[in-house]
Specification:
Helices cover 24% and strands 48% of the residues. It has 135 residues and is α+β, with helices and mostly antiparallel strands. The chain starts with a helix and ends with a strand.
Length: 135
């Protein structure tokens, strides 16, 4: 039994050591937009009229205020610098297992993103976001 516990502890330490650099990289990239809000619209694919929305990056989490009204919770986000572009991803979800998968780009003070609304046993619905930094 002692041998098994020691073996398990060694594997847990190794797992923590291997994931620590990944977490640090994700957090350091995210700080570029953390604390910023982008104001614009969220438009369902195929429609011309969008709904007002604020896209908020705060404390390492992303929120679409329009989607929050439908029960979507703040989601952890990641970023990746690609030249002048800052790419971000996030997956928001509701208590009922509905997901919104976000993929976006921020260039200067402009945000553009695509969100895929995924409900169990239903087709994916795509939305497009366009916004400017709120000053």
């Amino acid at each position: 039994m002692f041998h098994t516990a020691r073996h398990l502890a060694r594997h847990l330490l190794l797992a923590v050591a291997l994931t620590a650099p990944v977490v640090a990289c994700a957090a350091s990239g995210s700080t570029a937009i953390d604390g910023k809000t982008y104001t614009g619209t969220l438009t369902k694919q195929g429609e011309t009229q969008g709904d007002p929305d604020d896209f908020v990056f705060k404390d390492g989490k992303f929120v679409s205020t329009a989607c929050a009204g439908f029960g979507f919770k703040p989601a952890l986000y990641t970023t990746q610098q690609d030249g002048k572009n800052l790419r971000f991803t996030a997956i928001s979800e509701t208590d009922n297992g509905v997901h919104m998968k976000w993929n976006g780009t921020i260039i200067d003070d402009r945000l553009e993103a695509t969100a895929q609304w995924q409900r169990p046993d239903q087709p994916v619905v795509e939305f497009h976001a366009k916004a400017s930094a709120k000053h």
